Fold these 2 entries.
Entry 1:
Amino acid sequence: MRLEIKDLHVHYGKIEAIKGISVVVDEGEIVTLIGANGAGKTTTLKTISGLRKASSGSIIFDGQDISNVPAHERVDLGISQAPEGRGIFPGMTVLENLEMGKFHRKNRKAEMSDDLDKVYTLFPRLKERASQSGGTLSGGEQQMLAIGRALMSRPKVLLLDEPSMGLAPQMIANIFRIITEINKTGVTILLVEQNAQQALQRAHRAYILETGNVMKEAKASELLNDPAVREAYLGTGAHS
Amino acid sequence: MKIRNYWNLRDWGADIWERANRPKRVAIAVTSIILVAHLPFAGASFLATPIAAYDAVLVYPVGIFVLMALGLNIVVGKSGMLDLGYVAFFAIGAYTMAIMGTTTGLNTWEIMPFGIVFAMLAGVILGLPTLRLRGDYLAIVTLGFGEIVRLVVLNSSWSKGPNGIANVPMPPDIGPLKFKLDDQKVFFWVVIIMILLTIWMIRRLSVRRPGRAWEAIRQDEDAAELMGIATLKYKIWSFTLGAAVGGAAGVLYASKNLFIAPEMFTLNVSILILACVVFGGIGNIWGVIVGATILGYLPDRIRFISDARLLVFGIVLVVVMNFRPDGLLPRKKREKAIVKKEVNA
């Protein structure tokens, strides 16, 4: 299993948001895309999950070119995304949200209780809130729900779009700890983050995106100590 | 808080229903259906409409409005797509009845499936290219579609243009039940049966996969797609089922009215049906039924004040929507609370 993006171009109308990005994610890795606002991180992720159409370039998953596969069928192949801004269904309960994550699975009835148990083990808080509606959860809980729901489809690759967005520092640490845990169960993870510090600490490899281009690709630990990267994305002042 | 609860008719009704066991529920349902079926006999009471014949008003606007509002609610309420051209499907049903009824010698019941199928086909043809659009854009396109259908029948010879089609046959009698112009009880009962079938269909679908999919699409379309829901397919299904109900209503309307013309299928009808849905409570079948009943009935009930009646009608709309912005019988409360929360965030 390997996710490979080759020379990807994506347009919003006439504006080119992604200008030829190539990214490789190998089985079992945590790979992170970091970069400032407008770098094209979210667009890249949406193109992989199929929410946006690529203008050119290819997305190869498991040896198959999936560029023209519609988004809902990519879930069957094993690509699952927790969307930016969490994207939970606010009017459904936590349990119903999680059940939606299995919507497309053929033998969903047989798998349901097993997978619910798995998600509840990762996120005990969701079990407490099972009958509460999604919209009444706190930001951190909603993020847990989004990740948990994405896991319900038994993905091979999990795409996470800024899981730390708008969360308190303690919750961010918590979420990242769980992301590592999920990875250890064999799920490959492609993580988009603005919180470069946390992302680089957890990831194996990283790509730095800038205005639709890949500026740098390296081991996450190397980037964490790279002076230029520290300057641009990690801050050098009081925090270090 | 107490006052609010007192006014929350939806929860009040749901409470009674939840607490009732199966025989009790059947009893409630059967009693209400019998009561409603007896409405045409209440012509001498305070319900009577001045000027217009009471039993005719019960069929159109009231009955047909309820039927159409239920159909539109599948599109607007269940899957959250704003359709401003719903009258097109009504018109397609009505013209199918009028043309086939005057030329082929088939009766209303035989033409009914054709009307439904043609409306559904129109739904697919319109839906395939346009349902990729969302929100306001979809609304504009559907609005255009409604006007296109009206202009086509207005300017075509097969539809007899602005003259309309006269002498549309009435439905054949069902045993002792006779369809008559001056006594429309039987029409009303037919409408009730169609409404019940529609309710049954919506309720069946709501608790199954299509209902779940529509719900997800309405709340967050991108997230729905990411769950593996073929959003376009489910949206077209929703659109097409709505169209089918509209088409069926159209067939019955033509057969009851005996005459149809393009001016009966203007944008006003689409807007009015949408108003029924919003006024009653988007997404809640019972709300929609109450809304359509009131908006269909009220203008005829107050017809004695002649020109001022539309003013009164408008005032009632504005006042009610001010006090109950989610409609008379809104859908489940937990969804309302959330919308407010999202606005604040």
Entry 2:
Amino acid sequence: MTKLHVTTTINGEAREYLCEPNQSMLDVLRDELGLTGTKEGCGTGDCGACSILVGERLVCACLMLGAEAQDAHIETIEGVAGESGLHILQSKFLEHAALQCGICTPGFIVAAKALLDKHPNPDETTIRYWLAGNLCRCTGYDKIVRAVQDAAAEMSHPA
Amino acid sequence: MTAFAYAAPTSVSDVLTLLDDHSRSGEPTQILAGGTDVMVQMRSVNREPRTIIDIKRLEETNRLEVGAEDIYIGSAIPSAQMQEHAELKALYPGLLEAADLIGSTQVQGRATVCGNLCNASPAGDSIPALIAAGAVCDIATASGSRELAVEDFVTGVGQNALATGEFLLGVKLRRPQASTKDAYLRFTPRTEMDIAVAGVGVSVSLDGAECVAARVAIGAVAKTALLVGEAAEALIGTVLDEASLQQAGEACQAAAQPISDKRGSAAYRRKVVGVLCRRALAVARDRALGQ
């Protein structure tokens, strides 16, 4: 099969790659671009481990073709930490022990960051509904929700 | 996923040409919008190789317009974009509620109501809501376009009225008067990330307190979502009191042809659809009264 040439922007950098027409965005990120922070959980859009931002939309990279990224602006977990270190959400996940095995964590961080960009002061219900598409089989979710609440508080009122 | 080719045309005529060329040569095609159903099916139930035709680069499918008379929702518009449109949300709160119930935040970022229609699941939440809202499908055809009432679009489980060579450009809605409001309610065991056991979309138009027009549609209780004319007839001319809501609910129960599966028995679905009908009507009535 003829490979497709795609030019796109990933984490603020212009990127181009060749991909098969049937390669998912998830497979392109991991296998062609070496961005392995984005995880594959279910491959059917149920677990959120492959959450990325396309434009301003949170999406599952497993439900998108690599070819669809042409001219898009994509953000992955690799783009969350800044020059000065971890993002507040990442620090709060560590502080609250909001992860155990860690496979869901990149998806949760990307999804939670999208939430806080849109709703800087979400209540607990909003957080739980927003993150309903991210599954974690270790933590029981409470620590994750607390970490997001704490990050939101610190981001709105920096210490 | 099985091997296929990918095309992302930028005009309606290019999509139609691709569909026509492939149909002549007998090669299967698949229209791709949000992909939240298509991608999953390509990995599981429908692994046949085909040419993917991505319709998200067309100007027409990216229209989300709320005009003085008409509303247009293009087939590339994801639910998340609809939810951000405050005016659309105020005019059709029920349709927006239904679309918002489909999948997670991630799925909402891609999934379209037109895709929900084309996928034609009996439990597709936006379908009863679109029927209640009186939506009309705008279908691109080789000879131009044709319109089809949304209740006639889904023809069976996973089947729709698109003929070979056609594709769905968008759905049209009338801009409703302030005294016309809709509502959608579904029942699921969990409040999120679940599929409807039963769903009811309603729209009522009031003159003062009197109901002068109504549409009631039921979902997940038959092979397709159904427009229940008898339920509307029970409402028109009333003040949408408890007795008329009860009658409309019974009409929904009579129209339902539910199956028993792991989500609920046929008898349970039939009971629930009547309850949801009454509750959705009360919500729509109160909205139309400005309460």
